[in-house]
Amino acid sequence: MFSKQPPSSPPLSFSAKAARTEESPISSLMAMALHNPNLISFAAGLVDAPTLPVEQCAAITRRIFADRRRGQSALQYGTTLGLKPLRERLLSHLASLEGRPAAAFGITADDIIVTTGSQQTLYLIADVLVDPGDIVIAGNPSYFVFTGTLQSLGATVHSVPMDEDGMDVDTLERLLERLDDAGQLGRVKFVYCVSYYDNPTGQTLSQERRERLVEVVKRFSRSHRILILEDAAYREMGYDTWILPSIKSFDPDNRYTILTQTFSKPFAPGLKLGYTAMPCDLMHAVLRQKGSHDFGSSNLCQEIVLEALRDGSYRTHLQVLRSQYRGKRDAVLSALEAHMPGGVGWTTPKGGMYVWLTFPRAIDTSARGAMFNRCIERGVLYVPGDYCFHPDESGQVPQNCLRLCFGQVSHDQIDTGIQHLGKVVGELLKTTPIVLGDSLGCCSLNPEPRTRSHE
Ligand SMILES: Cc1ncc(COP(=O)(O)O)c(C=O)c1O
């Protein structure tokens, strides 16, 4: 892909951070999918293309550019914090999601920053808080792109298990106690939690755990505040209308929690617009960093989103999208039920676009294993679960799980793809000795164990 250097040129001298930054595993999966358009890709977190709001965005941009002054301002640079009318609108949007005025959790429009996707927020937050050797606590498994960011910043990631109620807060509390005993509490910077329809597991943090999480970090915030980075990227993609209050809503003074959301998944990733509410002392540091990154996100994209919120097209679009994803989730679950051999477990998400599968420990789902390669041969791609796990103390990660994303695949592809997947698993189970009592290995995300015999 890159041109060759003349043989005589000396090597480049990279920064320590560049050397720590590895290529994201998703890049090679995406390249594989693009290379082979016939591949049924359950891998990349792409959204459902037919529901993307093309007509709505066309009508909105026509309106923006029909007004010369507004058109000029959309094509101009903006502020680092983001368009004020958009931030005001986002404040009322957040309040309506919570069902409470924003004042109840201590935020104003100036506590909200608009970023180039929520990924930029995740990066900026980590960048202003983490020095090499500092500690970040995350669920296990968790969103692997951010784990890569943390690794490139030199963070030590400690993890706590996930179950059907999300991150296990009791284990988190014990971990903080242990870190305290070891004199390391001062290095703990934040707890990262995907609070709704998690990527990769599809699980949601229960209401009781949300409240306790805030209580626990407050209790351990002695020399400095330990923050909660609440990543609510999938919050508005619940299939039911009622959604839980955010973790942030249990932090009435806006001191301990950062709430980041995005328009990528619920509207259009091509706009690449995210927004984040955070404590004001953190905001100052983040603004300085964003200033040196890009001094503000695209004004045009901000105008488009503002219009979509104002004219109701965002709300209408969400309804279409939720029913589309609910249908796809149902298709995935029926296909798993129909085609997966016994001994395989999977989650049942109530929103978002991910299902997490757990296999008997003898089945190796990693990219080096037989299963991954046989699936590719049959035209199916998934995300190996080991990409999403943090290593334990001995450096090991579970190798018997995988993530299916049903965002981009069509209904027909869902059944065909899972049928192929089931066949590969069935073949492997026939040739792989299974130890009794070991049916689901080490992953506790196993709400519905299957006991059917191997077909
Ligand atoms: C959990 C989670 N957080 C954040 C992001 C970043 O999305 P964006 O930067 O497009 O808002 C993603 C994207 O897949 C995600 O899955």
Description:
- It is a single chain.
- The protein is of the alpha/beta class and 455 residues long.
- It has two domains: 16-51 and 317-431, Aspartate Aminotransferase, domain 1 (Alpha-Beta Complex); 55-313, Aspartate Aminotransferase, domain 2 (3-Layer(aba) Sandwich).
- Helix content is 40%, strand content 13%.
- It is built from 14 helices and 14 strands.
- The chain has helices at residues 16-20, 25-35, 54-66, 68-74, 84-98, 117-129, 144-152, 169-181, 207-220, 280-293, 299-310, 313-339, 370-377, 411-431; strands at residues 40-41, 112-115, 135-140, 156-163, 166-167, 188-194, 227-231, 257-262, 274-277, 345-346, 354-358, 380-381, 383-384, 401-405.
- The strands form three sheets. It has an eight-stranded mixed sheet with strand order 2-9-8-7-6-3-4-5, sandwiched between helices.
- Helix 6 packs across helix 10.
- The radius of gyration is 22 Å and the shape is globular.
- The chain starts with 15 loop residues before the first helix and ends in a 24-residue tail after the last helix.
- The chain binds pyridoxal-5'-phosphate (PLP).
- Pyridoxal-5'-phosphate binds at residues 45, 117-119, 143, 194, 199, 231, 233, 262, 264, 269, 272, 274.
- The site of pyridoxal-5'-phosphate has 14 residues, from helix 6.
